[in-house]
Design brief:
- It is built from 28 helices and 3 strands.
- The chain is elongated.
- The termini are far apart.
């Protein structure tokens, strides 16, 4: 590929491409070519091989044109290769003034480093120029400038917000605010190594955690989409599948290491953490990586929904394996339940006694609103995993018994989950069936749930009897006008556990929540009493009408009635004689006892 019309005296091979050039312009600009010609044994050497030119034939052609004095165009796409080629060909100021190295440095300082997007674009091109792009310190300079400019932009955005909030002059119209994370989306073009270095640097420079979280989420989504296969069945178990799994594992472990510090008010949404955990399990990530994600999810569990905790299990080709990873969920809920205990140890000296009013009475338990959300979430999860025919009763029971007694105000959700489990697993042992039903507090079942449980043939007889017993107590209290409702919800009675939302709750419950709960229960009891009174009136009417019809339809009942009256008169006569015998002293007493003894034998 000749550059000049003059016959060439030197041929340079760059890869598979040959360039017909001249020695003089090349030697005047390139120190490397000068050394190669001087070191050659043949003074008339006419061919040189350059195998490792950064950027390949394209960048060498531009460098050769520069040696000939031809004006070349430097762009974002070729600046990195030209800068590295200048270093490789030793086109420095020591060889010639205003050489290619100087020219590229001017362009980098003026056009690249001040702009974040340009810096990211050039950094992306540096990925194929390793290790020489590292040797010329181009990579480190670009990363530092990206971090510095990002923090400057963050500060500028904050000041502009402050100026809009407290304007010094009247502003007619404020331009729409440009999103501060616009440059973070362009980081998705970088490979994992460069991305990790950039994000570590911006974290040390003081970039906000919510910005870092947004960048991480965007990068992870873009990267994982590139690792998905359209038809997983075609590559399952193949070398391609193993390679994709390895890339996923490296990606997830790196992203987790870059996440902001763990906190209950973390800027990383639980949905993103859940997707990371699902990928970590399927890609067989390290135990420490999965434990980190489980703890982060546990910290924000009260913000989650059912989809966030439906973590598929890694079956490893086992068709009889579990559908969901219940062990992971067990650890996540345990982390949530231990949160307040950990915080109390860390901040025991800082917490005021008045703040403790809004805690549950059990030591170290989470706040009421949070644990109620989590209890509903767990009941929904139990109902979902109960459909798995491979789930053992012991694992289901371990999840059902995880929450403390005060966590569930109503046990309808748990009863529904247990009923589904019994329906899907009809052949479990009677002992396991009993243990399953023992997790349900019959006192906390609604009237509809009690009616269903009393007729549920899948439940043990003991539970059906218990449900009917408590329903009878509830009905009796309701018919008495609610005067004895404290018997059913009495905290002082150890036989009946305290219901969290009742009026008899401990002072550790929030006064506002306690008052609302009492009002709600009062309304429910009034409605229930009204329904029971109406039902009782109907039953009395039916009873009277049935009795009248029975008497009319059976005349023999009149004879029996007259006989019963005569028998009652005889009984009264015996009682009078007995009273006289008692006044007769010891003999009368003995005769009375002998009479009672004879009655017992006659009955038996």
């Amino acid at each position: 590929m000749p550059i000049s019309d003059v016959s060439s005296d030197l041929t340079i091979e760059v890869g598979a491409t040959s360039f017909s050039l001249h020695k003089f312009p090349l030697v005047s600009k390139s120190g490397k070519i000068r050394k190669l010609l001087l070191e050659a044994k043949d003074p008339k050497v006419s061919r040189i091989h350059l195998p490792n030119v950064p950027g390949g034939p394209e960048s060498f052609e531009l460098a050769a044109k520069f040696c000939y004095g031809i004006n070349i165009e430097i762009t974002l796409s070729n600046i990195a290769a030209l800068r590295c080629a200048a270093c490789y060909l030793e086109m420095t100021e020591d060889v010639s003034d205003k050489n290619l190295e100087c020219r590229t440095e001017v362009y980098i300082k003026d056009m690249i480093l001040p702009n974040i997007s340009n810096s990211i674009s050039v950094l992306h091109h540096c990925e194929t120029l390793i290790p020489i792009s590292e040797e010329v310190k181009l990579v480190s300079r670009l990363i530092n400038c990206i971090a510095n400019n990002a923090c400057k932009e963050q500060l500028t955005t904050g000041l502009s917000k402050l100026d809009h909030t407290f304007p010094t002059k009247p502003i007619s119209n404020i331009e729409s605010e440009m999103p501060s994370d616009w440059w973070g989306k362009s980081l998705a073009v970088l490979n994992l190594d460069f991305f990790q270095r950039v994000l570590s640097t911006v974290k040390t420079k003081g970039l906000k955690q919510d910005m870092i979280s947004t960048i991480l989420i965007n990068y992870t989504q873009c990267s994982l989409q590139g690792l998905l296969v359209k038809d997983p069945q075609l590559v399952k178990g193949s070398l391609l599948d193993l390679e994709l799994q390895k890339k996923q594992r490296v990606l997830v472990e790196t992203i987790v290491s870059l996440l902001p510090s763990q906190s209950r008010k973390s800027s990383v949404p639980i949905a993103f953490l859940s997707s990371l955990l699902k990928t970590a399990i399927s890609a067989s990530c390290s135990t420490s990586c999965k434990a980190d994600l489980e703890r982060r999810i546990g910290l924000q569990l009260d913000q989650g929904i059912l989809e966030d905790i439906l973590i598929p299990a890694n079956s490893n080709g086992n068709s009889h394996g579990l559908i969901y990873d219940t062990d992971s969920i067990l650890r996540i809920f345990s982390i949530f339940l231990n949160l307040d205990e950990d915080e109390e140890e860390d901040h025991s000296q800082m917490r005021d006694e008045s703040d403790m009013v809004y805690d549950f009475d059990s030591p170290g338990s989470p706040k009421q609103t949070s644990i109620l959300k989590v209890s509903k979430l767990l009941d929904n999860y139990l109902a979902e995993v109960a459909l798995d025919s491979n789930l053992t009763a012991s694992k289901f029971i371990a999840l059902a018994e995880l929450l403390p007694d005060h966590a569930r105000i109503v046990n309808d959700g748990l009863y529904r989950a247990v009923d589904i489990f019994l329906k899907v697993h009809p052949n479990i042992k009677d002992s396991e069936r009993y243990r399953l039903c023992k997790t349900i507090d019959c006192q906390k079942l609604s009237q509809e749930a009690c009616s269903h449980a009393a007729q549920n043939e899948r439940l043990p007889v003991q539970m059906a009897v218990q449900v009917l017993y408590f329903e009878q107590i509830r009905l009796r209290n309701a018919m008495n006008g609610g005067s004895n409702t404290q018997f059913f919800f009495n905290s002082g009675n150890p036989q009946f556990p305290q219901r969290s939302g009742s009026a008899g709750g401990s002072g550790a419950i929030s006064p506002r929540d306690n008052y609302a709960s009492v009002r709600r229960e009062n309304r429910e009891l009034k409605l229930e009493v009204a329904r029971m009174r109406m039902r009782l009136t109907d039953l009395e009417k039916d009873h009277v009408s049935m009795k009248q019809e029975l008497v009319k339809s059976h005349p023999a009942n009149r004879i029996f009635k007259s006989f019963a009256k005569k028998l009652s008169k005889l009984n009264a006569l015996f009682k009078v004689k007995e009273m006289k015998g008692m006044s007769g002293g010891k003999g009368g007493t003995e005769s009375r006892f002998l009479f009672q003894k004879r009655r017992r034998h006659s009955v038996s």
